[in-house]
Amino acid sequence: MKKLVAVAALGMAMLAGAVQAKGIAVVDLGRIVKNIPQSEATAKLLQGEFADRLDEIQRLEKQMADKQEEARRNEALLTEEQKMKVGRELQEMDASLKLKAKALQQDGQRRQAEENKKIFVIVQKAISEIAQKEGYEAVLDRQSILYAKPESDISAKVVEHLSKK
C-alpha cells in the first residue's frame, strides 16, 4: 500500500511539474471562434446563402396564417364541404411548410459544420504558429483542464493574430 501511495505521489509531482512548465499554453477555442472576424464573415455568407429559402418559409407561414384567419372569419358562411376543403388546404400548407423548414434546417446545419471545419483549420494553424514562435511545448484546450493561470492563456493572441489576416 505504501508503494502505491509513493507511486501516486511521484506521478502527481511529475504532473505538477509538467503543468508548471513555462512551455505550456492554454486556449479557449469557443472564445477564439466567437471573436475572430472569420466567424462573422461565415455567418454573413450562410445568411446570404439561405436568405431566399428563409424568405419563402416566412411567406408560406404568412399565407397559412392569412388562410386560417379567413377561415375563422368566414366559418359561419362556409358549408361543411367548404370547411373540409379549407381544412385539407391548411393541412397541405402545414405539411409543405414543415418539410421545407426541416430541409432548410438540415442544409443549414450541414453548411455550418462545413464552414466550422474551415474555421477550425485556420484557428489550429494560428495556434501552431504562435506556439512555435513563442516556444511553447504544448497548447491545451481550456475545456479539457481544471485550472490554468490566466497568463498561460494565449486566446487573445490567437484572436489578434487572426484579426490581422
UniProtKB/TrEMBL annotation:
Gene Ontology MF annotations: unfolded protein binding
Superkingdom of the organism of origin: Bacteria
Keyword Coiled coil attributed: yes
Secretion signal span: 1-21
Residue runs in coiled coils: 43-80
InterPro entries, alphabetized: Chaperone_Skp (IPR005632), Skp_dom_sf (IPR024930)
Cellular component terms (Gene Ontology): cytosol
Keyword terms, alphabetized: Coiled coil, Signal
SUPFAM superfamilies: OmpH-like
Biological processes annotated in GO: protein stabilization
Family: Belongs to the Skp family.
PANTHER family, per database record: CHAPERONE PROTEIN SKP
Record protein name field: Outer membrane protein
Source species of the chain: Neiella marina
Taxonomic lineage of the native organism: Bacteria, Pseudomonadati, Pseudomonadota, Gammaproteobacteria, Alteromonadales
